[in-house]
Automatic annotation (TrEMBL):
Residues 58-70 have a biased composition (Low complexity). This is Glycosyltransferase RgtA/B/C/D-like domain-containing protein. It is found in: Cell membrane. The chain crosses the membrane at residues 188-206, 249-272, 293-310, 364-380, 387-406, 449-468, 480-496, 583-604. One of its GO terms (biological process) is lipopolysaccharide biosynthetic process. The keyword Transferase applies. GO terms for molecular function: pentosyltransferase activity. Keywords: Cell membrane, Glycosyltransferase, Membrane, Transferase, Transmembrane, Transmembrane helix.
């Protein structure tokens, strides 16, 4: 009677799909106990052994599935749950009895008179058949783990039953378990993506420093030349510059389009890398949002909030643009192997995207070993033959036209390779060929590992390697594809060479790793999903992160301590029973904590003052164009290399720009005036004062004692020199 009142109350409060249990645990004789000892194994274990695709096909073919009663091993009676009479999900709950272990102990084990209950759920669909009597097994196969989630998410699957020991003492009262709906999990992915977009835009605005060095200046100048028709394909016609940046057309060609629409300024210059950064996160979000929303959320956070990805979003460097092209190519390869339709189209797309990545940067070659290994594997298995034929054929055609173009322009089909070799030879005093040969052994042994830890990727590697033993029902090839691509690419960075003629490993800089980040972050997202769905390995991961924090001697250790605290908190809330894995709140807590830790470093740099004062300097030059008056402007050694950018690469004809230290060698003709443009932020930038700038702002002003202040904007000052220059 009480149960009926309880059911009616739940119906009245908007819980129409609660499944009511049978009477619980009645006394039985020796014969029943003997049958219970022969109870079949858990439905959950059997479901795990079936591939997801096979279980989905079986589920589509068998729309009607009932519920069977499952005996409790070594207990006093069977426990089953009857479905609702009119529709509702078909549910089975198996109760496993063991020792105290928070539901994880082996079944059929008792210690110290305590009983621990573990619940295993398998589900059917609405409109099922009547379940079979006498506890006989049903013919339909249980669905796999991921299908159970999609079938039961959001429905209350248990309703207030009691568990008693044979003596009749009350032990446990189980109310209800709510599994998250697909829409709830997708909402987690949507919120994570929205947070990444907002933080990326905020970082772009509040940390923008203008031009960084020569590379982005050259790319911007090539874009301006391309817009005005003065860009020369092939080598410099004057023979003065052999620049490999000149051949990365997809870096500056879109910038030329931005110049045509928005004009030449620093925002239009860096709009393309910003869009590429957001595009990489958007691609991961769109690719996994429906199928694996937790993977989508984790991958977007781990990739989009990685500090060096954000750092490259407001500089015209090829790395984030190349990352987008590499990720698009890898996603195309993965999607083509998942789908049987349109193999010719997928193959052609793969070839086009790899060529696009090559036109961004040469590091796409680190994907080649994985491509080759996957091709050989499919060849042996006789799979995806039409796809590989289309990819190889399209790639051969595109590469042939590309080499023919260089043959026509430079009379050297391998011009780009020879240009890279020439660059390596020119810079050999600073690389591992000559200047750093003593450090070569350390470079190919332990330095890459310390470098990955120091750049904040230790957490990503930990989760990715932890996914080698998945703890949920994800198809193995789904995560192993990304992990295989990530590890093979990492091997290329670790042991590969930038030269074909001599062994010279790539320089260990964070921006060089952008092609490695997407596959590692996706593989790590699968490992993170396992943690959020099962709650397992949280303590193990936390201990490993504390070890990484101890190994790292930089400020990045704060991140490892933060991630360890997040995983420790997940373990604590599960142990205390405040939150349970496989719930939206548990997943949201983990994602929020990881995202907040990732945001620490970007938020810190957003709060710091500018180290270049680019926008203040640009405002001063616009307010005082200094033309048409003829004269000379003395600037620092950093600005002298890119000052024409502030004038749209067309500086006033009457102005000359000279370095501070050239003051004694610059004669002033009649009618000319001299100016001093002083940027105190640049002259105090540690990255510049260590090598390039050997003087301070005050010492530079002391060279011009007779001066008059014309304008000041923050740390930028403009003076007119009124008397002779000392």
């Amino acid at each position: 009677m009480r149960r009926k009142q309880h059911s009616a109350a739940r119906q009245q409060h908007g819980h129409p799909q609660v499944v009511e249990p049978q009477d619980v645990l009645e006394e039985c004789g020796e014969e029943k106990q003997h049958q219970q000892r022969r109870a079949p194994r858990s439905l959950w274990d059997s479901a795990q052994q079936q591939p997801v695709e096979e279980s989905k096909q079986q589920h589509q073919g068998q729309r009607q599935q009932g519920v069977k009663q499952q005996a409790i091993p070594r207990h006093s009676g069977p426990l089953g749950i009857q479905p609702r009479q009119q529709g509702g999900p078909a549910v089975e709950i198996e109760v496993q009895v063991g020792d105290r272990g928070h539901g994880r102990a082996p079944p059929q084990q008792q210690r110290n008179d305590d009983v621990v209950v573990g619940f295993v759920v398998a589900a059917g669909t609405e409109g099922h058949e009547q379940h079979q009597q006498h506890g006989q097994p049903h013919d339909a196969q249980p669905r796999a783990d991921t299908d159970v989630l999609h079938g039961l998410q959001g429905k209350a699957i248990g309703s207030s039953f009691r568990l008693q020991k044979p003596g009749g003492r009350f032990l446990f009262n189980f109310a209800a378990v709510n599994l998250p709906t697909p829409s709830q999990l997708r909402r987690c992915a949507d919120v994570a993506f929205a947070g990444v977009v907002l933080l990326t835009l905020a970082y772009f605005v509040f940390t923008h420093e203008g031009l960084y060095a020569l590379d982005d200046y050259y790319y911007a100048r090539y874009a301006h030349q391309l817009l005005h028709g003065t860009f020369h394909l092939g080598p410099d016609p004057k023979g003065l510059l052999h620049d490999p940046l000149h051949e990365r057309w997809l870096i500056f060609a879109p910038v030329a389009l931005c110049y045509a629409v928005f004009g030449v300024n620093i925002i239009s210059t860096t709009l393309w890398p910003l869009l590429a950064t957001l595009g990489s996160s958007a691609l991961l979000w769109a690719y996994y949002r429906r199928r694996e929303p937790l993977v989508a959320a984790g991958a977007v956070l781990l990739l989009g909030l990685h500090y060096f990805v954000l750092n490259l979003s407001n500089y015209l460097y090829p790395d984030n643009i190349n990352m987008l092209a590499c990720l698009a190519a890898a996603s195309t390869l993965h999607a083509a192997r998942r789908q049987a339709r349109h193999p010719w189209l997928w193959g052609a797309c793969l070839a086009v995207l790899n060529l696009a990545a090559l036109l961004c940067k040469e590091t796409i070659v680190y994907y080649a070993p994985f491509y080759l290994g996957l091709f050989v594997f499919d060849l042996v298995q006789r799979k995806h033959q039409r796809f590989w034929l289309a990819a190889a054929g399209s790639g051969a055609v595109l590469l042939g036209f590309y080499l023919l173009f260089y043959q026509y322009q430079t009379h050297d089909a391998l011009y780009r390779i020879h240009l890279i070799e020439h660059t390596n030879e020119f810079l050999k005093e600073g690389n591992y060929l000559l200047g750093n040969r003593a450090a070569l052994l350390a470079r190919i042994s332990y330095q890459p590992l310390l470098f990955l830890i120091g750049s904040g990727l230790g957490f990503v590697l930990l989760l990715a390697l932890g996914g080698l033993r998945p703890s949920s029902g994800t198809p193995a090839d789904e995560r192993f594809f990304w992990l295989g691509l990530g590890l093979s690419t990492l091997a290329g960075y670790w042991l590969g060479s930038t030269s074909l003629a001599q062994y010279n490993p790539i320089t260990l800089q964070p921006r060089m790793l952008t092609p490695l980040l997407p596959p590692l972050c996706v593989a790590a997202a699968f490992g993170l999903r396992d943690v959020l769905q099962t709650g397992r390995r949280t303590v193990l991961y936390a201990a490993a992160l504390l070890l990484l924090a101890g190994l790292d001697r930089s400020s990045v250790a704060v991140l490892y301590f933060g991630w360890a605290a997040v995983l420790g908190a997940l373990a604590l809330v599960e142990r205390r029973g405040w939150l349970r894995p496989r719930t939206v709140r548990y997943a949201a807590l983990g994602l929020l904590g990881i995202g907040l830790v990732l945001a620490i470093r970007p938020l810190y740099f957003m709060s710091k003052p500018s180290v270049s004062a680019h926008f203040a300097q640009d405002r001063v030059l616009r307010r005082h164009p200094l033309a048409p008056r003829a004269g000379v402007v003395f600037v620092d050694d950093y600005l002298i290399g890119n000052v024409d950018f502030y004038y749209g690469f067309q500086p006033p004809a009457g102005l000359r720009f000279r370095r501070f230290w050239a003051r004694d060698s610059v004669p002033l003709t009649s009618g000319e005036r001299a100016y001093v443009l002083l940027n105190r932020a640049t002259l105090s930038n540690p990255e510049l004062t260590r090598k390039l700038l050997r003087y301070s702002a005050d010492s530079a002003l002391s060279w011009y004692p007779q001066r008059q202040l014309l304008d000041r904007d923050g740390p930028v000052e403009l003076y007119e020199v009124t008397r002779s220059i000392r």
